[in-house]
Design goal:
Blueprint: E1 4-7, H1 8-29, H2 33-46, H3 58-67, H4 69-73, H5 87-97, H6 99-102, H7 108-120, H8 132-142, H9 153-164, E2 170-176, E3 179-185, E4 192-193
Antiparallel strand pairs: 1-2, 2-3, 3-4
């Protein structure tokens, strides 16, 4: 058995979430609307959701997120009622700013994964934007994980990755008996060593 296995994609994904979160919170702390809006724009580009907001509404969209930052941070913002219908985009910003409350990003991958999860346990719960927060709370109860504060954020970011990437082949760094090898597979158990 290996001494340690690290999923490269998970580490990269979690690191990016931490960086974006830090940039957003830093902009808020400095009351720097420009930096906040630039970060929101970059998130949209990097996470392929920028297209969900009409070009002529992009500036107004970022401005509205800035105006609603306190509501997001205090669990009062409802991204699923977006006037822009940019639900995944707004969900991503809410998740990054307040992961302890929002817990999972609303997007096609997570929605499909949660739907599959509930089917597998014979739960007929509706998984959609209207019931998302309630569904996410229930899902977290099945993980026996109830995030309480900042110390839980890294695990929240990892749970988000594990949900949407569960059917994705990943690269694993394996440290075993002082040697490092690379493997590819869905899980550490199914990963096969890469040959060079």
């Amino acid at each position: 058995m290996s001494d340690e296995m690290i999923c490269l994609e998970e580490e990269a994904n979690v690191a990016v979430k931490h960086v974006f979160r830090a940039e957003l919170l830093n902009a808020i702390a400095k009351n720097d609307k420009g930096a906040f809006k630039k970060c929101v724009e970059q998130i949209g580009k990097d996470w392929h959701v920028s297209r969900t907001v009409e070009t002529e509404e992009k500036e107004e969209f970022r401005e509205d997120l800035w105006k609603n930052k306190e509501a997001i941070l205090s669990n009062k913002y409802e991204w699923n009622k977006s006037q822009y219908s940019a639900y995944s985009y707004e969900s991503k910003i809410c998740f990054l700013l307040n992961p302890v409350y929002y817990k999972l990003i609303y997007d096609g991958l997570n929605k499909a994964a949660l739907t599959e999860f509930y089917k597998s346990i014979h739960d007929t719960r509706k998984v959609d934007k209207e019931t998302w927060q309630e569904t996410v709370e229930h899902y977290y109860s099945t993980l026996s994980f109830s995030p309480k504060d900042e110390t839980d954020i890294d695990r929240i970011f990892r749970e988000d990755f594990k949900l949407w990437a569960k059917d994705t082949v990943k690269t694993w760094i394996v440290k075993e008996n002082g040697h490092i090898t690379y493997k590819r597979g869905l899980t550490p158990e199914s990963a096969q060593e890469l040959s060079v």
